[in-house]
Specification:
Number of helices: 6
Oligomer: single chain
Radius of gyration: 17 Å
Number of domains: 1
Strand order of the largest sheet: 1-2
Order of helices and strands: HHHHHHEE
Number of strands: 2
C-alpha cells in the first residue's frame, strides 16, 4: 500500500457527514483521519504515524470546536506539519544508512480551501489533495547504497508515498 489521497478524502467526508448528523467532531478527529491516511506509507516506513497521532490528538482535543475558532486553519496547518515532522523523526536515516529522511517543508497550502463555502464533498476532496500534495514532497532514501571502500555513497531518494 502507499499514500492515497482518496483514503484521507473518504475519512474527512465521513467525519463531515457525522458532524452534519449531530455528532461532535473535534480537531483530534482530523488527526485520526491523517493517521489512517499515513499508515499507508511505504517510504518512509510508517513507524512514527501512531505516536505522532497520539501526541497531536491530545493537544488538539483540548481546543474547543464550538464556536469554530478563527485560528482553526493555522492550527490544522501546524498539526499537519508536526505530524509530518514526527514521521520523519521516527525514521531519520534511509535504507542506505547514510542519507537523511527529509520531511515536507513548510505547511500545506489549505487556507483558501477552508476559507470558501463549499460542499462537504468539495472540501474533503480539495483538502485531501492539498495535504497529499504536501506530504509527497517529503523524501526518503529508499534505494541508497552505503559507502563501499573509497566509493562515495549514492542516494536513492524517492518521494514519500
Amino acid at each position: 500500500m502507499a499514500l492515497k489521497a482518496k483514503t484521507l478524502e473518504d475519512e474527512l467526508l465521513r467525519q463531515s457527514e457525522a458532524a452534519a448528523n449531530g455528532q461532535t467532531i473535534t480537531y483530534g478527529d482530523f488527526v485520526s483521519a491523517m493517521e489512517k491516511y499515513a499508515l499507508g506509507l511505504q517510504n518512509p516506513p510508517p513507524l512514527g504515524v501512531i505516536p505522532a497521532a497520539a501526541v497531536l490528538k491530545g493537544l488538539l482535543d483540548s481546543i474547543p470546536t464550538n464556536p469554530p475558532l478563527p485560528i482553526a486553519t493555522p492550527l490544522i496547518k501546524l498539526a499537519v506539519q508536526l505530524f509530518a515532522l514526527n514521521i520523519g523523526f521516527a525514521v531519520p536515516i534511509g535504507k542506505g544508512l547514510v542519507f537523511p529522511t527529509i520531511p515536507p517543508m513548510g505547511q500545506p497550502a489549505i487556507d483558501s480551501i477552508l476559507a470558501q463555502p463549499n460542499s462537504r464533498e468539495q472540501v474533503a476532496k480539495q483538502l485531501s489533495n492539498a495535504i497529499h500534495t504536501y506530504m509527497i514532497t517529503g523524501t526518503y532514501d529508499a534505494n541508497g547504497t552505503p559507502p563501499a571502500g573509497s566509493t562515495p555513497p549514492v542516494s536513492g531518494y524517492v518521494p514519500w508515498g
